[in-house]
Design goal:
Elements lengths: L11 E5 L5 E5 L10 H23 L4 H18 L6 H9 L9 H20 L7 H12 L36 H15 L7 H15 L6 H15 L11 H6 L1 H14 L2 H36 L4 H12 L2 E3 H8 L3 H13 L4 E6 L2 E5 L1 H7 L5
Antiparallel strand pairs: 1-2, 3-5, 4-5
Amino acid sequence: MNPNDFTQNASGRLMPSPQGFLAFVPHPLPPKLEFDMGLALALSKADAALSELSGLGSQLPNPHLLIAPYSRREAVLSSRIEGTRASLSDLLIDEIEDSQAKPENRDDIDEVRNYVRALEHGMQRLPELPLSLRLIREIHAQLMSGVRGDKATPGEFRRSQNLIGPAGSTPMTAAFVPPPVDEMIECLSDWEKFLHMREVLPDLIQCAMMHVQFETIHPFLDGNGRVGRLLVTFFLMERGRMTQPLLYLSAFIDAHKSDYYDLLQRVRTHGDWDAWIRYFLQGVTETATAAGQQARELYRLREQYRAQLRDKPNALALIDNLFTNPYMTIGRAAKLLGKTHPTAKAAIDVLVKNRFVKEVGRRRWGRFYVCGPILEAIDRPLA
């Protein structure tokens, strides 16, 4: 970490360690922020897009149909930012396979599935436990247990120095060194107090600041990026800005990854909160708009399929399940319908005949099918 990179406007201070390297200790939030017309307009657009998505989530006849596919897409994209290479199809197929299936990318899929568990755990706990250090430890435990990072003390804040940099970096050569453990504990206490501040800042700006500060403190040995992105969704849900957990920023961050890391670092080195907040607000605007378009497309498909199958009760009963997971097997259909395999096969044949699903392959345990339009609507890249 080069001390010459840090200006007098840096958002924290450099602290020398006994070992000779420098670490960065951020100042408590909030910083001073000047609002100009450009920032006010960006905030207005993001607020409007988020409010429209939240309103859509409350108006749709069954918004829960969107939660499963949206959360799984977020799990894939957020994990991809950290180098995991499982696709959404990998995850969805794995969910309908038997427990003995062992794909080559088993470790990657397990990490993504843990992300889904962490997200679901956080959403279940929010009504009874405020967003807090306790909750993020629980989320981290769900995220990291039983996978490649499980040696990084799941659910526990680090007790040693960590760093951010390429493989092989040391604290002397790393691009960024978070605060030492004692200072980290104090920073986390200040960060938690900031989380609970109300009526001080607009929610979206407070959320943007909260995210940077968490990534700067880097309180875990592994998994900080994924927890930090989950916190955005949890924060907005706790503040009542979303009626359903439908907004996730990983698609935007993945599409603009270099800007993301550069702007995080500029907050630290130059105190450039303005550029970061504009980036964050743009991400909210684009992601909320895209999520709304996806939701409308999915519900258009649902109504179309249901209308065409109104006189085919078994096939109709499978439709909503295709929206939670667009892959289907005869075994899954039989279980969902509570019917025999021949009856389930007949129901799938109806879906095939109507071109709602097509056979896409065979496993050792049987055929599997996919509803292409649903998968494409869920997995469409952010424009």
